[in-house]
Amino acid sequence: MRWVLRLALALVALAVLFVGSIFAASEFGGEVVHLRTRDAQGGEHTTHLWVVDDAGFAWLRAGMPGSSWLARIDADPNVVVERRGETLRFHAVPVHEPAVRDRIHALMREKYTWADRVVGALRDPRGSVPVRLEPIAPAPG
């Protein structure tokens, strides 16, 4: 009976270590931006995400098509991103083209190296959704 308890504790410890390594990789594996979105009631949500630049745009990636921040973008694509000490407004555009998805994956792998591999262990890359951030010009003042 005692060995069952030890085995259970070892499995719990491994699970905690695995989840902790994914969190550490996602938060400390490279550049992280803060995406601010709004829900249907107008409440603001902040999500920490990785970002890459390609073809003149910044890109985010939802690891799963059911991500809550992606659902909020579908409802209201006007977002705020804090990056490198700047706060900028964007129109967020999910892109569902496999070639674009594969290109953004490659850029994420190149930029975030080991951290991308660790975080990627939990997702099917074919289900990921890249999101292009199109700048919103400030109102003329």
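[next item in queue]
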Amino acid sequence: MTLSKISIACWTFFVIMSVAFLPAGAGLFHALHALPPTPRLVLVILVVGTLWWGPFGYAMYLSLAGMRNGDRRLLKRGSRGTAVVLSGKATRTVIQEGEFAWEAPRVWKYRLRVSIPGRAPYETDCSICIPSLPTGSVVNVAASRLNHRRVTIDVGQDRKGVARATRPVPGANSAATAVPASTVHFTSGPIPAGQAGEAQRMSLLDQLGRLHSQGILTDSEFTAEKAQILGE
């Protein structure tokens, strides 16, 4: 489950508890007075604190810590890897933190193809207040160990006093990754024989290998493009 879906679930549960609490409030009030002080306190904390206002507090935490600032806890405790930006769009949501609504940063929703060591590449969404990440670019990410579809993009959340920006991925070739995975095509026909053709073939195979290792190309796409380059 992604961060935005968890946040929606929290807000939904909070609204349901708020509506249900109105008609049940009077009966609960009389029932509490019939209980001894200790069980009464435990029940109040459980119902009011945990079941009612707990989802509200967690939803606010997800909005401020997860979407606006990027999840620092996930960056420290999650599984590190990289991701290819498949698409991105600005939402209508802004996350306020003291400023006016028109000054607050807007949430962008990115579709990512995530590559975590020891796990097959997979796609998921990430909502964060970082605008205009180029489609096809490679970014550093951290994924939850229990919920791998929950990811945060590394924009320097752990560095105080530094402007937010994605960190460069070692070995990532900006020229090779600046295009969507679905539009990567290396050849339109057979490569001519000879020294020049062999050099071109080796260059294309080198680019192909880098894109495959970065998760931009799937195994099947890699195999198909390799066969086309080699003329098999």
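[queue empty]
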